[in-house]
Fold:
Amino acid sequence: MLYVFPAGTRAVAVRAYRRPYDDPIAVAAGDAVQPDPLRSPGTDLLGWIWCRAADGREGWVPEAWLEPRDGQLRLRRAFSALELGMEPGEVVELRFSESGFVFCRKADGTEGWVPDAVLALHPAAARG
Structure:
């Protein structure tokens, strides 16, 4: 379920995280994707489906962001599966969360997904 954080909400990484791939699926709102029923069961996170975009890039896509239209599955909103690498102590601004992942922005402006288990709200970080 999509949750949008209040502006300025920050968290700190409690452990390191390495993103699994550098050029994952990225699609615009309304774009069609092809789900892969053989790879989709390969995650322990509910709510994510492995999909391929028209350009051949693949990645996990939030199931709740997909809708059947014109005989295809299409994205309700723009989506990129790019994940951020994190180091312990690194602070990020929380944008929104979906099914166990949080979309964050680093101080240098880079954005991407981080598993919520890597992050903890930090009172000092939340104040800005």
Observations:
- The two ends are 26 Å apart (CA to CA).
- Helices lie at 123-126.
